[in-house]
Design a protein that fits this description.
The structure holds two protein chains of two kinds.
Chain A lengths: L3 E4 L2 E4 L3 H24 L4 H23 L47 H35 L5 H30 L11
Antiparallel strand pairs in A: 1-2
Chain B lengths: L15 E2 L1 H8 L3 H8 L3 H9 L6 H11 L3 H4 E2 L6 H13 L1 H4 L1
Antiparallel strand pairs in B: 1-2
The chains are: A mainly alpha, B mainly alpha.
Chain lengths: 195, 100
């Protein structure tokens, strides 16, 4: 895990756990607002699909820019421990002058996880798997009870909740292991190469 | 005996170690040690605090780096200060009758 964030060319220290936690809370708040907005507009089917797409893209961008885990951007190193291959040509997003990707030559050691980080990664995925399972099963039980046993929920409301569940689960699937890692890692010593 | 033992943080790993002492003694920074071992410099901090128990491979790498046996660096029991241990052994070696 990196102690600082490369954010549009600026290096921001995230060595303190409180900062990382604040960032995670902010990211999930934004995602939650998007999910709720998508559900609230479910009467318009096109809006659902559009806002749903925004939720997924927001989660992907959160990973690329802040959380990491899937590419060289963000705080968490790539989970596959392979870094990124050389770019033959700059990716399309770079042409927009956005420093979303950090092109690297070869497989830099700074992108590889050591044995402790691999252990933490596995533990974070275990907990993410548990939480994701609960996040799917519990609302499903509530929905089943509400629709069939209690008769409390109409089909429209049930569909709204189901859409929200699906979107939230997808966002969690993309972001949760990284978020758990960043949330649980204690205060880090600043990177000696920083400054 | 307990009074002679150093008060070291055992951490989550349940292992006591002398990495911090050896590193300070030899003037090696965490980054230099991390580079030599091929790990993140944060991991050295976790090792020193006893919050992470290294694999056998990493333990042997650390022991090779410091040129000491593994048991001189890691222990499941609290480690005595190196000076006390070395001079204690030397005193016993110089005067074997004392040790008996």
């Amino acid at each position: 895990m990196n102690a600082e964030l490369d954010f549009f060319g600026r290096r921001v220290s995230m060595a303190q756990r409180s900062r990382r936690r604040a960032m995670i809370v902010l990211i999930y708040s934004i995602l939650a607002v998007l999910v709720i907005a998508a559900c609230a507009n479910s009467r318009l089917s096109s809006m659902v699909s559009n806002l749903g797409t925004y939720v997924i893209w927001a989660a992907i961008f959160a990973c690329r820019l802040f959380l990491g885990g899937n590419a060289t951007g963000g705080l968490v190193k790539p989970f596959n421990s392979k870094g990124q291959k050389d770019w033959e040509a700059p990716p399309s997003l770079l042409s927009l002058k956005l420093r979303v990707y950090q092109p690297i030559s070869g497989l830099g050691a700074e992108y590889l996880n050591d044995e402790r980080e691999l252990q933490q990664r596995d533990r974070a995925h275990y907990w993410a798997y548990q939480i994701l399972g609960v996040s799917i099963v519990v609302p499903w039980i509530i929905l089943s009870l509400g629709r069939h046993k209690l008769g409390l929920l109409g089909h429209a409301v049930a569909n709204q909740i189901a859409s929200g569940m699906l979107l939230a689960s997808l966002a969690l699937f993309l972001t949760l292991p990284q978020a758990i890692l960043l949330w649980t890692e204690p205060d880090m010593e600043p990177d000696p190469d920083f400054n | 005996m307990q009074g002679n033992q150093t008060t070291q943080a055992v951490g989550e790993s349940g292992l006591f170690n002398r990495i911090g002492v050896l590193r300070a003694e030899r003037g090696v920074s965490r980054q230099e040690l991390a580079d030599a071992l091929g790990v993140n410099y944060q991991t050295i901090g976790f090792l020193e605090r006893g919050d992470y128990g290294p694999s056998l491979k990493l333990a042997f790498q650390i022991s090779a780096f410091f040129g000491l046996p593994v048991e001189a660096i890691f222990s499941t029991e609290p480690l005595r200060p190196l000076s006390e241990q070395i001079y204690g052994v030397k005193a016993n070696h110089d005067n074997p009758e004392q040790s008996q």
